[in-house]
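[step 3/7] fold_predict: job queued, chain A
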Amino acid sequence: MYQILICDDERDIVNALKIYLSNPDYTFLEAYTGAQALEIMEKHTVHLILMDIMMPQMDGIEAMVKIREKWNVPVILLTAKSEDTDKILGLNVGADDYITKPFNPMEVCARVKSQLRRYMQLGGGNRLEKVIRIGGIELCDEDKTVTLDGEPVSLTPTEYEILKLLMEQPGKVFSPKEIYQKVWNDLPYGSEGTVAVHIRHLREKLEIDPAEPRYLKVVWGQGYKMEKGA
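[step 4/7] structure written:
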């Protein structure tokens, strides 16, 4: 059973999302401000959050920042706007994905299912039998942990899957479209900006100098790779 927190200041939208996601495997928690969402997170086990950006009192961006201080649960942001700046802003503060209003019910279901699958460790590529080590980075797929020079690194589910993809084939260059298709299991529309934000987050967590990365390299005009023998 998966518990999904839906946070939107419009009750009709909350109710609509519950209808779209009607599934015997899902239960729902409701919040109408960012502050309420944080209160619920402290009291309940939540497997995924659908969070509106534009809300009174505490908006989705501010709530997202506070959520990421404690939890790595997948977060899908909801926005009434279609501008790329809103989507990138949401990704910048730790969101895993976004959905633009008005919603396509099939898209909502697909994105929620994809994020839950990854978070609950039921998908995201073939399971690794051994720990992968590249330089000071160690990734153990059995317990979904990453360490850097022996210290644990806290990654979101999306960041973990991107890192795993790159570490499985060090030296191989993956285009943003390839990464998006493999990690999000979705068509790569708008993939370049989305992937770039998550790569930047990984660099901030794994690189001594993110501007001069040792591990996560960009191959201009082609994509990203994990440096061999870094």
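[step 5/7] annotate
The mean pLDDT is 86.
The radius of gyration is 18 Å.
exit 0
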